[in-house]
Amino acid sequence: MKQAFFPLNAVAALFVLSGGAMAADDAAPPAEVVVVSATRVGHTVFDMPAAIDVIDAERIRDSQARVNASEALAAVPGLVAQNRQNYAQDLQISSRGFGARSAFGVRGVHLVADGIPASMPDGQGQAATFNLDMAERIEVLRGPFSAIYGNHSGGVIQVFTRDGEGPPSVETTLTTGSYGSRKVDLNVQGKQAGIGYVLDASRFETDGYRAHSAATRDQAFAKLTLVPMSGANLTIVANALRQDDTQDALGTTWATYQRDPRAGEIDATDTQNPKRTLADRYNTRKSIDHQQIGASWEQRFGEDRLRVTAYGGNRGVIQYQSFSKAFQAPATHSGGVVDFDRDFHGTDLNWLHVGELAGGKLSTTIGLEYGRSSDARRGYENFIGTQFGVKGALRRDENDKITSLDPYMQTEWQSGAWMVSAGLRHSSVKFSVEDHFLSNGNDSGSLEYSHTTPVLGLLYRLSPALNVYASAARGFETPTLNELFYSGTGGGFNFRLQAAQSTHLETGIKARLGDTTRINAAVFQVRTRDELAVDGSVGGRTSYRNASRTLRQGMELSLETAWNHGLSARAALTSLRAVYDQGFGAVAEGSRLPGVPNANAYGELAWKDSANRFGAALEAVASSKIYADDANADKAAPGYGVLNARVNASQQWQGWRFKQFVRLNNLLDKRYVGSLIVGDTNKRYYEAAPGRNWLIGASAQYQF
Question: Is 403 exposed, middle or buried (0-12, 13-18, 19+ CB in 10 A)?
Answer without folding.
Answer: middle
